Fold this protein.
Amino acid sequence: MESCLRRLRILIVVMVLGSGLVSAGEDAGTQTEEPVIKIVAKKFDYTPNVIRLKKGVPVVLEFTTLDILMGFKVPDLGIRTDITPGQVTRIRLVPDKAGVYPFLCDIFCGSGHSDMTGTIIVTE
Ligand SMILES: [Cu+2]
């Protein structure tokens, strides 16, 4: 009886440790290993407003806004997103061509809206 209880206890410990390992594995699976570039929008700029990338190297662009709804559009790369207050917005990007690509806010946000621009520079 005593040894049976001990075996049960060991089994429980193994199960708890096992589930710990499994959940640690899941965490690792959901976290991206790709570099994350945080971009903060506010009236009327992006920080940073120059983003340097390597051709063929995946990155995650992570957007937040400090004030109101903003847009982020890179016409030459065919990407755009809303940047919504209180939310984190992510875009995965694998630049497939080297070059200089302007981006801009495409949601009217006030008097400085047309100056709300930046550049993505992709090098080989
Ligand atoms: Cu704007």
Summary: The chain has a mean pLDDT of 84. The CA atoms of residues 70 and 83 lie 5 Å apart. The helical segments are 2-30.
